[in-house]
Structure formats: C-alpha cells, structure tokens
Amino acid sequence: MTSPDADPDAAVRRAVETVFRMERARLIGGLARLVRDLDLAEELAQDALLAALADWPRTGIPARPGAWLTATAKRRAIDRFRHRRMRALKLAELGHAPEDDGAAQISAAEAAMDDDLGDETLGLIFTACHPLLSREARVALTLRLIGGLTTDEIARAFLAKEPAIAQRILRAKKALGAAGLAWEIPRGDDLKPRLASVLEVIYLIFNEGYAATSGEDLIRPALADEARRLGRILAAAMPGEAEIHGLCGLMDLQASRFAARLAEDGSPVPLTAQNRRLWDRTLIRRGLDALSRADASGGADGPYALQAALAACHARAGRAEDTDWPRIAGLYDRLAAVLPSPVVELNRAVAHGMAFGPGAGLALLAPLDGLAALAGYAPLQAAIGDMLARAGQPAEAHARFTRAASLAGNPRERDFLLARAAACAA
After folding, report:
1. Contact 104, 163 (CB under 8 A)
2. At what angle do helices 120-128 and 135-145 cross, to 10 degrees?
3. How far apart are the C-alpha atoms of 373 and 345, rounded to whole Å?
4. What are phi and psi of 268, to 5 degrees?
5. What is the pLDDT of residues 21-63, one digit of tens each?
6. What is the C-alpha separation between 295 and 301, in angstroms, rounded?
7. Which of 31, 222, 363, 377 has the most CB atoms around it within 10 Å of its CB?
8. Do residues 224 and 258 touch, judged by C-beta distance below 8 A?
C-alpha cells in the first residue's frame, strides 16, 4: 500500500485544498462583487477548485496559486456570461430579445481579470454582516462564506437543524441579492454603523465558543478561534480603527483562559478559582498589545476596549486575591455609561460587591431582580446567591442557587449551581 506522503498526486491535492481553504473567502468576495450573486460566486469558486484538482497534479503548483484560482474562476464567469449572451442573441433572432444581453457583464468581467485582489474578503465580511439581515442570519452567513463551514457544521455548532440553517442562509442570500449591494467596504459616514454590526457578529461567534448557550459542552474552542481569525483579518486591514483592536484584545485575553475554565469532569471553574498557571501567556501578551493599540488610537473608552481592559485586570493578577477589584468596578462604571444594558449592570454590581463588600453588590443587584429582561437569566440568581453566601445568609443563598440551576441551559452549569446550593445547605 502506498503511503499518502509517497504519492505525489496526493501531496498536490493536499496543497490544492490548503490553498483553496486560505483563498476561499477572498475568491468568493471578488466573484460576488463581479457577478452580484452569492450562489453563483460560490459555484464559480468551486469550479476553480475542481480545475486546480485536475490540472495541478499534471502541470505542477503555479507560482501564485491564489491568483491562478481567481483567474480561472473569472474565466468561468466570462464563459457563463458569453453563453448567456449567445442565448440572448438567438432569442433576438426569433424576435424575443431581452433588455440585457450580458454584453456589459462580459466587459466588466474581462476588465476585472487584471484587477488587484484588494479588499474582497473585507467586502464579503461587511456584506455578510449587513444590518438588513437578522443577527442569526448574519452569524450563519459569515461562518458559511468567510469561515468556510458547511451548513451541517454550522447547524452542529449552534445545535440547530441543518434544514433550518440552510433556509436561513438561503433567505439571507436572497435578501442581499434583492438589496443590490455593492459588495464593498462602506466609506465615510456609512462605515461606523456597518463596522459595529461586523464586530457584533464576530463577538457573538466568539461568545458562543467561549460560553455555549446550550448543549453538553460548555466551550467550543473552534468557534472562538474562527472569531479571533476574523478579528485579525479586520485589524490587519483597518489598523486605525480602535474598536477592532479592542475586540481582538478582548477575545485574546478571554481565550487565554480556555485551558483553566473546565475541571477534569467538564464542570466550570470560576475565574477566581482557576489555576492561573494554565493561562496562555502568549495570548495574554497579544491581548495586552492589542489593548495598547486601541488606547493609542484614542479608543480607550470604546465598549470593546473597556471590556478588554477588564479582562486585562484579571490577566495581570498573579493570584485571585491580587485582583484589582476597585479598578474593575471603576471600569464597569465607565462601561455602563457607553454600553448600558442589564447584563453590564449585573456585572457592575458583582464588581462592586467584590471591591467594596457583598452589601454594596446586593444594593446594586436589588433593582435588577425584578427586571423582565433578566427574569430567566441564571447568572443574576447565581450572583445574588454568591453575595448572600458571602454576607453570611446561607439559607437565602441556597434558594437563589437552586433557582439559578433551574434556569441554566447547560447541564454542566446546572450541576455546578446545584453543588453551590448544596454547599450552602451543609
């Protein structure tokens, strides 16, 4: 039996697949801008992959494999436009000429053959994250087009049915096609709201990897890694945007704790109880560097930069008892001013409780306890339980932890909260 490494054709096929995986998003982005049709763009990119699999074992890997794939895909696009034009001309001879015979598309495609590849990937990211789509559709489409995940992989990542994800992606593509978008990075006043939407989608993907909202697994590192990769693409292309660096810093600092977040039995380990020797120092250094770039760009009070600064407080503390809780409480005060939300207020209350005692935390948690927005939110009940336990009220804490467990969507989290409730009853 021939080993794969001894088979030159197998080596070339692996090279083709590697190049395609690296170039896929940029290829589809450039094609989508050309043909204004996401399905057709994906089809043309796939055609280019098949052509490479057929040609490269015979002719060798080209010097610029990405450019080869792009040129091949664009030639296929021109072939399709020409075929469409010939059909239109034949219809014209029969007296059924359509208004558009495809001549303009052929000219545009031929002009694009020598274009600089430019910002195709970014244009694709901004289009997939367009605010006209629902949040769920933006996430699914981004993972499909830029991440290269299959529909089945996205469905498994979000514990959804594959047909539902397929329909979500299909509807999103139709909506984008009907909107007549330019498939480009927005400029001027249009950039900020669109960039905010892009960052929101990337952080949603990361958060689902960092703390899964449902399912058996508490974390999904592959999703978090993909979000960090998207962030790096944005940061490299738009180095002057402080919030991008803030988000990258936040994701790197949070990802640095992955190895310490779960106990051997899969249960969660609270931040204050984690073995900090397991934290990834390389990611911490990268996160702190990104945070410095956000500050240097004038973005110290941006929502993502502030959250990165909060994560940095924990990263800099060698032991849990060294954590600078007064600084964290102050950062949460600033974050609540620029990003007001019940969840930020909840975290702010916890920080004040850690900095100034459980009484201070309970005072800030009290008005949140009756909010409809947090009525089914397990972390609120867990936070109240924790403060009550620290204040020496175990019976009340037991009731809150039990309530939190009943609201938990993840069995590991539920077990952890029940264990805390049991500890209060002991």
Report:
1. no
2. 150
3. 12
4. -75, 150
5. 888 888 898 888 888 888 889 999 999 999 999 999 889 889 8
6. 8
7. 31
8. yes
